[in-house]
Amino acid sequence: MTQELHVLLTRWKGNGFINELTYKRLLTSDGNIPRAYELIKIHKAGNLLRVIVSSINSLLYDFFPYLHNIIIKSISQALNYIKDSFHLVEKLWHSFRLIILFFDSNYILASLDVVSLFTNVLVDLALNSIEKRWDHIFKNKHSKG
Known about the structure:
Blueprint: H1 2-14, H2 20-26, E1 35-40, E2 49-54, H3 63-74, H4 85-94, H5 96-102, H6 123-132, H7 134-139
Antiparallel strand pairs: 1-2
């Protein structure tokens, strides 16, 4: 993995995707292997286990946030984006009149919990999504560090 990261970062630097400072920051040769452990879901029947993978001080610890920041800047926020319950209340409060106009009293507001969202995203789908947006992602890259 260390060698693959080195090859990737060298190629990115050679193609001008990243500068020398970013290259040095992302290149790690002494990172730890990510550590996996389990926590018991005491609130669930049967005390199921939740697997946690800690990447702190791992080889890709700085690399993942770097990619995340580039991708998150490259995807426009959906009109129906809700950050958290406080954000929802704020949006509902500011558009209260619209809610009365558009929603019948028979409607119910429901919150759905996503189960294993990221483990169920197909790799090909994720790569295709990035490929479609590559020009926009490239414009938003952090080449200054």
